[in-house]
Specification:
With 194 residues, the chain is mainly alpha-helical. It is built from 8 helices and 2 strands, in the order αααββααααα. The protein is 66% helix and 6% strand.
Length: 194
């Protein structure tokens, strides 16, 4: 149940297949767990903009946080995850500023997100991605479910070389979307609030 609820939390609103894919679960098992979560009042299925998906209820977030705390305690990972979060915070500030800069620029001048990006901004994303690689190793040593973020970020940076929208778009696995998910994963694991 932990991975199923946590996948819904990280994705925000997602269909069963996406929930299952997030942590490599069998879709039929994920569907069964989502139905059980719905019966327990932890998740609800709804339709939005022609898409059906799952989202967590307030009780579901509480249960997810309880399961995450239990997982962290069993793994003895509090010190490691706290240390990674401390290293992540300054990286996060730079990424958030770079994403905002791009979004505001594209909005202000009416240009498309595929217009070139200045080198300092590009380097912010490249450095953050490289730094995360080491942090992910430290995280996965105690909580293997953190694996994959670094590779996804590297792919987004590579895609952005020819299509800059891969840095901030909401319609794909963009750098900003992955980074936001990672931030949510860290703070949820530590029981923190944004």
């Amino acid at each position: 149940m932990l991975l199923t609820l946590h996948a819904v939390r990280l994705l925000g609103f997602a269909d069963t297949e996406s929930v299952a894919a997030r942590f490599g679960q069998d879709p039929h098992d994920a569907e069964r767990l989502l139905i059980d979560a719905g019966a327990n009042g932890w998740a609800s299925r709804s339709a939005f903009g022609g898409t059906r998906g799952w989202s967590l209820t307030v009780a579901g977030r509480t249960e997810n946080e309880r399961l995450l705390a239990e997982e962290l305690e069993c793994a003895g990972g509090l010190a490691a995850v706290t240390a990674v979060h401390a290293k992540f915070a300054p990286l996060n500030a730079g990424v958030v500023a770079a994403c905002s800069k791009l979004q505001l620029r594209w909005l202000a001048d009416g240009s498309q997100p595929n217009v070139g990006i200045d080198e300092p901004t590009r380097q912010t994303f490249t450095r953050a991605s490289a730094s995360l690689s080491d942090l992910e190793v430290r995280l996965t040593a105690v909580l293997p479910r953190f694996s994959g973020y670094s590779g996804r970020l590297e792919q987004a940076v590579a895609n952005a070389a020819t299509e800059p929208a891969w840095l901030t778009a909401t319609d794909r696995d963009s750098f900003h979307r992955i980074w936001f998910e990672l931030h949510e994963d860290l703070i949820a694991t530590l029981g923190l609030r944004r």
